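Minutes, project huddle
Topic: does the predicted pose make sense with pyridoxal-5'-phosphate bound?
PN asked that the exact inputs be recorded in the minutes so nobody has to dig through chat later. Recorded below.
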Amino acid sequence: MDCTALEKLLERDTDTPTILISSAGTVNSGDFDDMKVITALQKRFDFWWHVDGAFGAFAASVPGLSHLVDGWEAADSITVDGHKWLNVPYDNGFYFIKKAHSTLQMNCFQNANAPYLGERLENFSYSNFGPENSRRLRALPVWFALKTYGAEGFQKLFERNIAQAQKLGALIEASEDFELLAPVRLNIVAFALKNEALQSDFTKSLIATRRVFMTPTKIFGRTATRAALVNWQTRDEDIDISWAEMQRALREVTRL
Ligand SMILES: *Cc1c(COP(=O)(O)O)cnc(C)c1O
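Predicted holo structure (tokens), as shared on screen:
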């Protein structure tokens, strides 16, 4: 996000209710907005500040990368996915909302006309503070995962995936055929063939053998390939396998 442009926008329009949605880890490139700059803007302007930290929120538990989310504690709301880097099954996510907004939250989500539920702020129940009333116990797999691996176990997983992403990024950067489209800040590697004409066929060929999986995407107007490393089973050797598969796919599309 261009925070200078944002500031100008906020200066121009002070009346319209505004929600600012910032990124802690964008889908395409794992990029982060500058939380400290937004915190400073928040002191001058009135807006609801949301942080999308679907997978990037976990940078907070990696020493050396936690600075990427410095300042986000001032946000009004933060969302995080469990079904990505926590490796628990779909559909699993959490949101954190500033305690100061409890009444607003309750007014949005409470079961209307249900006096039998008692005083809602006093008898806390998640069903009054979220969009769902009836729901499954999604917290259970998260609880088991955290109990089993702990903060340290997950930190190791995050660090391993980040190192794997960096290794793949370094191979791409040193290559004559591929081009890195964004710096590897976390666990996402966005890249493309230098020969743009072959790019779409390349991704198709890469995943056709089902040995590796990466997604086709578009970034900065370029058709690209995106590797997202979040899986606990990914071994360092899998990066070598991916690299070999990338070479195979490249040869295949060059021959076409
Ligand atoms: C996956 C993802 C989403 C979508 O969230 P789901 O809970 O999987 O629907 C939103 N934002 C980012 C940055 C994501 O990575």
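Observations noted during the meeting:
- The chain has a mean pLDDT of 94.
- Residues 25, 27, 52, 54-55, 81, 93 surround pyridoxal-5'-phosphate (CB under 6 Å).
No decisions taken; revisit at the next huddle.
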